[in-house]
Write a structure and sequence with these properties.
Layout: H1 11-25, H2 31-47, H3 53-68, E1 72-76, H4 78-83, H5 85-94, E2 98-101, H6 108-120, E3 126-127, E4 133-134, E5 144-145, E6 155-159, H7 163-171, E7 175-179, H8 186-190, E8 193-195, H9 199-213, H10 218-226, H11 230-246
Bound molecules: ligand PTJ.
């Protein structure tokens, strides 16, 4: 494939497409991950392709939830590893949290390739290969997970999650943090804390907040998480988008 020209006004977006397309050719990203990426691009356009204040606030709350968790796990799929493997490993180390490869379109080959990619980027231990537990209510390989990873986690960060699985994780009484550019998706409406931002910007910004909040009193962090109103935030995002679109022309 010919390289994206640096002078192109949408160079960053074209490079990102190249990354995800190359990851698909390597068998890391599932082919439907390209479709999911396209949907994400469309919603990113609507928010202006930058971290809006509501997302920054959600990223800060997510950092607080991850810091007070007893067993936090970052769930890694084929899209997020294609876009920011180093940043995921760095965030996991900063919290610290476990990294688990958890796929919607699960195959052993993809699990191994994604785990290898995370190791190349500095991860030591990767969960997800044992798959000795099942998320109740999911009658498909997408329910498989590790007993000492996602299954026993109290807080799970799921970038680009499927709505069904998000609901199943919530039914297990876990705190679910989703990153989803679509504020209308079932995932966005089901998670405890939804980050309406691109994973490319969200993961490093959560890490920035983790480092800022790390030495803060736990009671303060708990207060922030407990007072989070996800529905109100999603309504604010939709008003933001609507005002932004109305003021464009
Ligand atoms: O690697 P696998 O097998 O686990 O499969 C991963 C995909 C993404 C294919 C699978 O989880 C899937 O089908 O996801 P959905 O249900 O299409 O949901 C993807 C959601 O992520 C959509 O709402 C998109 O708007 C959103 N999205 C896409 N790209 C990004 C994004 N959100 C944040 N950042 C992105 N870069």
């Amino acid at each position: 494939m010919e390289e994206a020209p640096k002078s192109h006004p949408r160079y960053f977006s074209l490079k990102t497409r190249e990354k995800i397309s190359n990851a698909m050719k390597k068998g890391i990203t599932h082919e439907t991950g390209l479709i999911a990426h396209g949907r994400g691009e469309a919603f990113d356009y609507l928010i202006g392709e930058k971290t809006i204040p509501y997302a920054d606030d959600a990223e800060r709350t997510a950092a607080a939830a991850l810091l007070i968790a007893k067993n936090p796990v970052l769930s890694i799929n084929g899209n997020v590893v294609a876009l920011n493997p180093r940043e995921c490993v760095s965030l996991a180390k900063a919290i610290p949290a476990k990294l688990e490869v958890n796929l919607f379109h699960r195959t052993k080959e993809r699990i191994d390739k994604i785990a290898m990619e995370l190791k190349k980027n500095g991860a030591k231990e990767i969960y997800g290969k044992k798959a000795d537990a099942n998320i109740p209510g999911l009658n498909h390989d997408r329910g498989l997970c590790d007993s000492d990873g996602i299954f026993s986690a109290d807080v799970v960060l799921v970038p680009l999650e499927d709505g069904d699985r998000c609901q199943a994780l919530r039914s297990m009484n876990k705190t679910v943090i989703a990153i989803d550019l679509n504020p209308l998706s079932r995932t966005a409406r089901t998670a405890n804390i939804t980050i309406v931002d691109n994973v490319i910007r969200a993961i490093p910004n959560i890490e920035k907040w983790v480092r800022t909040l790390k030495n803060m009193d736990k009671a303060n962090l708990e207060k922030r998480v407990e007072s989070w109103n996800n529905k109100e935030m999603l309504q604010d995002v939709l008003s933001f988008v609507s005002k932004r679109l109305n003021s464009m022309f």
